[in-house]
Design the sequence.
């Protein structure tokens, strides 16, 4: 905001807190990388030192007030030479004390099958959770058409592909990291047309 020298994100958060004291507990869904926006020529930011500096005051305000920042960030989609995973890791590392939730674990219906399973868990989810202290990083398992629909063989039993075979790896991850998992930021029916 040229008038105040603060980011529009911070201006919005301050306005919400003034209008609705104590009622707003998080901000969602900030788009870092979202494939469905590309055909409309809408793109999320490239995460750079300049962007991180601009966003710092917002992230620090969220940390100070105990609010959660929720990011949509498609795991394996490149944008202007920057991978989605790199974006969420850069933000997580830069703002360790801000509570951050990664919506949909970076998966969406447009996600490429090759990212599912061990690679997604080891190089994505676990790396993201490690960017902050306990209680400051969470992953969200909503968006069933991306996560559960693609991976759960009980939802689509006729699918014979590697994604369904990898379901066990996710069950283990969910059991091992249950305190870092939420569901429902973007809940969509499993049976929509």
Sequence:
């Amino acid at each position: 905001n040229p008038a105040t020298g603060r980011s529009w994100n911070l201006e919005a958060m301050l306005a919400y807190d003034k209008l609705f004291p104590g009622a707003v507990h998080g901000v969602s869904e900030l788009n870092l990388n979202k494939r469905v926006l590309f055909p409309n020529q809408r793109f999320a930011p490239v995460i750079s030192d300049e962007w991180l500096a601009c966003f710092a005051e917002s992230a620090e305000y969220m940390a100070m007030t105990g609010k959660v920042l929720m990011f949509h960030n498609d795991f394996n989609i490149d944008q202007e030479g920057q991978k989605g995973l790199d974006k969420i890791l850069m933000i997580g590392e830069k703002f360790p004390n801000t509570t951050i939730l990664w919506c949909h674990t970076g998966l969406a219906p447009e996600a490429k099958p090759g990212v599912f399973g061990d690679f997604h868990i080891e190089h994505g989810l676990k790396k993201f959770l490690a960017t902050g202290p306990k209680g400051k990083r969470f992953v969200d398992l909503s968006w069933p058409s991306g996560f559960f629909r693609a991976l759960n063989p009980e939802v689509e039993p006729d699918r014979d592909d590697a994604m369904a075979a990898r379901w066990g790896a996710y069950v283990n991850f969910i059991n091992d990291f249950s305190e870092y998992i939420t569901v429902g930021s973007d809940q969509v029916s499993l049976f929509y047309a």
About this structure: The CA atoms of residues 17 and 120 lie 36 Å apart. The two ends are 42 Å apart (CA to CA). The mean pLDDT is 80.
